[in-house]
């Protein structure tokens, strides 16, 4: 049982780490502000969320897990909200999204 | 492994420091200082100084970034190019840095049990806290009881800072109550802010009253409390935030916190003890200590929260549009 939980938590932790890495690469590589925001939001929700989930499995049924659950709750609400606010602010600041001109 | 984390964190700190120096946009500098504080907070966690880490995260990475952004919004967000040659400042900085590094040569090694820090009063505090004060978090017992005078001084400093900002910036009341920027576009932010506003205040209270058992206390709680109101002001406009907590009430709260702290000291004098000697406050010395610590932490929290909000209100009320 312990082994299964360990494997499960490590899968979550590594998955989270991979998503964080993908997000970081995206921030560096994507061409404009809005696409980069997309990459950042992956870090916030999937990356950090999976890491927290993995830690919760490690914590077992304890106060630590409850605290992690609260953090998870905070993350899934605040992350997208922050990204949304950023995108909204950029739109209000008249930042044009990069669109593919060749198709039109 | 720990060395690896240390090296990575210190390396990132250095990179952030250089980035701050190189950056011309002040908004970006404000964000970078926030990152710098968050990195130092992580470093404090690695060093097992969780109370300091919490303070650094709440104050350095949290509220001071908001205050910096509010200050930048009042001026320009572009740093001006220096008009003098950088030679003299460079010499001063290099000399000071060299002197500081030379100073570290005499410092005891990290974790050295024979270093003066560990041989002086710290051992006494660690040894006596369970019996005399009965608080699991030794940091709180040192901060609030053994070193009560120092903390009173710190609270007075914060009070003075708040009074200074009030004297310099004042508070500009506007006839028209601002309702916050564009109404429909902030819907998501407003819903989330409304959802999290009570939770943030609850968390602040948890930090405030759990300070005896875990990391936390009045300073951190006050800052988190103020952050909740700042979030509210950001989402709903300054006018609405002031209906919840008016500016005049903040003036009173700012003074009340310090007064609570000092009056606990005077009360213990009236009961026949020394200034801030809590054990005379109740029949049982340990209960007296608990009571005294709780009261002065409450005083600290009230003053800190009020001063932070006064500074924020002061900055934001100066802006013409009134919204940030």
Description:
The complex is a heterodimer of chains A (104) and B (324). Chain A has 104 residues and is an all-alpha fold. Chain A has helices spanning 2-29, 33-59, 63-92. Chain A is elongated, with a radius of gyration of 17 Å. The radius of gyration of chain B is 22 Å and the shape is globular. Chain B has helices spanning 2-22, 26-46, 50-74, 87-104, 116-119, 121-132, 138-146, 148-169, 187-209, 218-236, 238-244, 247-270, 285-318. Chain B folds into two domains: 1-107, Four Helix Bundle (Hemerythrin (Met), subunit A) (Up-down Bundle); 114-324, no CATH class. In chain B, 74% of the residues lie in helices and 0% in strands. Classes of the chains: A mainly alpha (104), B mainly alpha (324). The A-B interface holds A 74, 77-78, 81, 84-85, 88, 92 and B 182, 185-186, 188-189, 192, 195-196.
SSE order of chain B, one letter for each helix or strand: HHHHHHHHHHHHH
Sheet with most strands of chain B: none
| Overall number of structural domains of chain A | 1
| Oligomeric state of the chains in view | heterodimer
**What is the 3D shape of chain B?**
globular
Tell me how many strands of chain A there are.
0
Query: What is the helix/strand order of chain A?
Result: HHH
Structural class of chain A: mainly alpha
Report the C-alpha radius of gyration of chain A, rounded: 17 Å
Unreliable residue stretches of chain A = none
Shape of chain A: elongated
Q: How much of the sequence of chain A is in beta strands?
A: under 5%
């Amino acid at each position: 049982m312990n082994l299964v939980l360990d494997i499960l938590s490590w899968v979550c932790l590594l998955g989270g780490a991979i998503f964080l890495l993908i997000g970081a690469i995206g921030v560096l590589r994507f061409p404009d502000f809005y696409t980069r925001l997309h990459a950042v939001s992956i870090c916030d929700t999937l990356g950090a969320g999976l890491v927290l989930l993995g830690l919760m499995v490690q914590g077992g049924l304890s106060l630590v897990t409850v605290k992690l659950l609260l953090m998870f709750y905070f993350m899934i609400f605040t992350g997208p909200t922050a990204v949304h606010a950023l995108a909204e602010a950029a739109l209000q600041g008249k930042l044009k999204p990069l669109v593919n001109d060749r198709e039109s | 492994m720990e060395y690896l984390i240390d090296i990575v964190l210190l390396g990132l700190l250095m990179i952030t420091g250089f980035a701050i120096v190189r950056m011309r946009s002040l908004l970006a500098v404000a964000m970078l200082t926030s990152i710098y504080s968050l990195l130092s907070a992580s470093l404090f966690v690695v060093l097992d100084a969780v109370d300091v880490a919490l303070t650094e995260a709440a104050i350095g990475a949290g509220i001071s970034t908001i205050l910096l952004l509010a200050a930048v919004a009042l001026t320009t967000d572009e740093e001006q190019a220096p008009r003098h040659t950088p030679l003299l400042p460079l010499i001063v900085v290099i000399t000071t840095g060299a002197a500081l590094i030379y100073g570290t040569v005499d410092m005891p090694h990290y974790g050295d049990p024979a270093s003066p820090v560990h041989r002086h009063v710290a051992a006494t505090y660690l040894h006596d806290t369970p019996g005399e004060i009965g608080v699991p978090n030794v940091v709180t017992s040192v901060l609030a009881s053994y070193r009560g005078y120092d903390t009173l001084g710190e609270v007075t400093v914060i009070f003075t800072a708040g009074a200074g900002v009030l004297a310099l910036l004042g508070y500009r009341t506007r006839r028209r109550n601002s309702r916050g920027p564009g109404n429909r576009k902030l819907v998501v932010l407003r819903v989330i802010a409304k959802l999290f506003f009570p939770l943030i205040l609850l968390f602040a209270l948890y930090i405030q009253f759990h300070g005896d058992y875990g990391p936390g206390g009045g300073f951190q709680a006050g800052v988190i409390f103020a952050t909740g109101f700042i979030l509210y002001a950001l989402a709903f406009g300054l006018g609405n935030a002031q209906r919840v907590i008016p500016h005049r009430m903040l003036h009173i709260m700012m003074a009340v916190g310090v007064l609570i702290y000092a009056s606990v000291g005077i009360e213990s004098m009236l009961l026949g003890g020394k200034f801030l000697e809590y054990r005379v406050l109740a029949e049982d010395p340990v209960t007296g200590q608990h009571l005294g610590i709780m009261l002065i932490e409450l005083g600290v929290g009230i003053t800190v929260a009020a001063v932070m909000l006064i500074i924020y209100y002061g900055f934001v009320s100066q802006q013409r549009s009134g919204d940030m």
